[in-house]
Amino acid sequence: MSTVIERTKAYVGAAHNRVDGLRKAQGQATYSAEYPLEGLTYGVLVDATIASGVVRAIEGSAARAVRGVIGILTHENAPRLQPIEAPPAGERLMPFQDAQVHYHGQHLALVIADTLEAATYAASLVSVTYDESAVIARLDDHLDAQYDPGSMFGEACDETIGDPVEALRTADVTIDRRYTTSLQHHNPMEPSSTTAHWDGERLIVYDATQWISGVQILIAQQLEIPKENIRVVSEFLGGGFGCKGWVWPHVIITVMAAKVFDRPVKTTLSRRQMYTSHGYRSGSFQRVQLGARRDGTLRAIMHEGIVQTSVFDDRPDMVTVATRSHYRCPNMTTTNHVVKVNQITPTPMRAPNENAGNFGLECALDELAEALDLDPIELRLRNYAERHPTSGLAFSSKRLRACYDLGAEKFGWDRRGRRPRSVTEGHLRIGTGFASVVNFSMVQPATVRAVVFADGSARIESGSQDIGTGTYTILTQIAADELGIDPARIEVRIGDTNLPPAGGSFGSSTVASVGSAVRVTCRNLRAKIAERAARGASLAGAVAASGESSIELTSAYEPDELDAETKSFGAVFAEVSVDEELGTIRARRIVGAYDAGCVINPKTARSQLIGGIIWGIGMALHERTEVDPRTGRYTNANIAEYLIPVHADIGEIEANFVESEDYAFNPVGAKGIGELPVIGVAAAISNAVYNAVGVRLRELPLRFHEPL
Ligand code: MOS
Question: Ligand 1 centre from 687 Cα, in Å?
Answer without folding.
Answer: 27
